[in-house]
């Protein structure tokens, strides 16, 4: 069986819908809890697949959360050896930093469901199934596109929403993995951020009900396509 290692920063931001995709592909997976487990262990560097999930800290916090620097080093090592890496939100920012791109505050939070605009490269990428279906955004930082990467998607005011780096690296600023049926965990866990940004929880819940089921199907299709292109899918 193939093995996936998943770096998790907060318990409720987990694999979501991606868990069933990996299981269906014959993967076993285990979580490495950032701050509790070593993120630079050989078992992380050498796993068949590494997934780096989101969280409420950022690259600029590495001085206070030193394991972020260790995650960047581990991701860089895997990229150099062409080992598959998928990053979501903070995970995408870690990939960008590992590739030498700037990551920093976006000047405002982007929280809620909204469609992407796919670039020409994005329309020819694994993200193509998403079309104009609203996806879940939840971030206050942003990344620049690393040299040699393909910019895949944007939203108004946030030009860099996704990039790929060869067939084995995919970075998503938005939360394609999130399970809409478990949104309440996010609303509780990020209560302070939601209140600070005056996010309408009723509207967010309603959008999750309206867009979540279709988005889950499309998200699974995207992950399946990427696993195939990354060379980690089943034969």
Q: How many whole angstroms does the radius of gyration measure? A: 16 Å
What is the percentage of strand-forming residues? 25-35%
CATH class: Alpha Beta
Number of strand segments:
10
Architecture overview:
The chain has 235 residues and is α/β, with parallel strands linked by helices. It has one domain (2-229): 3-Layer(aba) Sandwich (Rossmann fold). 34% of the residues lie in helices and 26% in strands. The strands form 2 sheets. Strands 2-1-3-4-10-9-8-6 form an 8-stranded mixed beta sheet, with helices on both faces. A two-stranded antiparallel sheet has the order 5-7. Helix 3 (67-80) packs across helix 4 (90-98).
What would the keywords be for this entry?
eight-stranded mixed sheet; 8 helices; alpha/beta; 235 residues; 34% helix; 26% strand
Gist?
The protein is α/β, with parallel strands linked by helices and 235 residues long.
Outline the secondary-structure elements.
Blueprint: E1 2-8, H1 18-24, E2 27-33, H2 42-45, E3 49-52, H3 67-80, E4 85-88, H4 90-98, E5 103-114, E6 117-118, H5 120-123, E7 135-143, E8 150-155, E9 158-164, E10 169-172, H6 183-189, H7 191-196, H8 201-229
Parallel strand pairs: 1-2, 1-3, 3-4, 4-10
Antiparallel strand pairs: 5-7, 6-8, 8-9, 9-10
């Amino acid at each position: 069986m193939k093995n996936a290692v998943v770096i998790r920063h907060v318990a409720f931001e987990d694999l979501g819908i991606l868990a069933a995709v990996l299981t269906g592909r014959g993967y076993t997976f285990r979580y490495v809890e950032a701050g509790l487990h070593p993120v630079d262990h050989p078992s992380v560097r050498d796993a068949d697949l590494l997934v780096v999930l989101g969280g409420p800290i950022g690259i600029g916090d590495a001085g206070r959360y030193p394991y972020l620097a260790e995650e960047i080093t581990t991701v860089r090592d895997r990229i150099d050896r062409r080992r598959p890496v998928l990053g979501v939100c903070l995970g995408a920012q870690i990939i960008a930093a590992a590739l030498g791109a700037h990551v920093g505050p976006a000047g405002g939070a982007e929280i809620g469901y909204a469609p992407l605009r796919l670039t020409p490269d994005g329309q020819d990428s694994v993200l193509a199934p998403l079309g104009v279906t609203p996806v879940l955004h939840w971030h206050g930082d942003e990344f620049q596109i690393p040299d040699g990467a393909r910019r895949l998607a944007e939203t108004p005011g946030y030009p860099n929403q996704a990039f790929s780096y060869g067939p084995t690296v995919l970075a998503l600023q938005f939360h394609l993995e999130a399970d809409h049926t478990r949104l309440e965990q996010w609303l509780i866990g990020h209560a302070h951020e939601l209140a600070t940004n005056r996010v309408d929880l009723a509207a967010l819940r309603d959008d999750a009900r309206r867009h979540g089921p279709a988005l889950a199907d499309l998200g699974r299709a995207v992950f399946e396509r990427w696993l195939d292109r990354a060379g980690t899918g089943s034969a």
